[in-house]
Design goal:
mainly alpha, Arc Repressor Mutant, subunit A, 2 domains, 0% strand
Length: 172
């Protein structure tokens, strides 16, 4: 009679016990910040729990570092986005600035849009943002980016399809 395989939670707990300190040190070396390293190490294990793949992992440190590397990229992207927003906000007269609550919602929404557009080429992403955020016509986008109107149409179709697929994945 063979023993039952360990439960998912037990597998994650084992991985956490065996590799958390190593992962946190690995992240600290890359980030130079103990607090961010601790947060991202925790987020890595949360992702592991959500993915429900702990029982199939054969090379834990490779897997964990791959997940953590993606989280580091997300962190830097989010911070760059926030910095761009804050620079824009500094250029807006104080009387026209959104409330702190609206600012938080805007930053969160910008992050969601960025995640949704992840994987698109930079020109496709830029085309989409010029259309949706700046309200430029396709002709104006073509002129600004130095591409044809047909290319703008193709980029918008690709971006819309990508967004729809991302939304479907999000809700499934």
């Amino acid at each position: 009679m063979s023993a039952d395989p360990p439960s998912l939670n037990a597998a994650v707990q084992h991985l956490y016990t065996e590799h958390h300190s190593w992962l946190q040190g690995w992240l600290r070396m890359r980030l130079g910040n103990r607090s961010d390293a601790a947060d991202l190490a925790q987020d890595t294990f949360v992702r592991l729990l959500k993915a429900r793949t702990a029982l199939q992992i054969r090379e834990p440190r490779h897997y964990l570092s791959t997940v953590a590397r993606g989280l580091v990229i997300d962190l830097f992207r989010r911070r760059a986005l926030e910095q761009s927003y804050l620079q824009w906000l500094a250029s807006v007269p104080e009387s026209e600035q959104p409330s702190l609550e609206d600012q938080a919602v805007i930053i969160e929404t910008l992050g969601e849009i960025d995640r949704m557009l992840d994987g698109l080429g930079s020109t496709v992403k830029q085309t989409f943002l010029l259309s949706q955020c700046e309200g430029l016509t396709y002709a104006a986008i073509a002129e600004r980016l130095g591409i044809s109107l047909r290319t703008v149409n193709n980029h918008m179709a690709k971006a819309m399809e990508h967004c729809c697929l991302m939304q479907m994945q999000h809700f499934s």
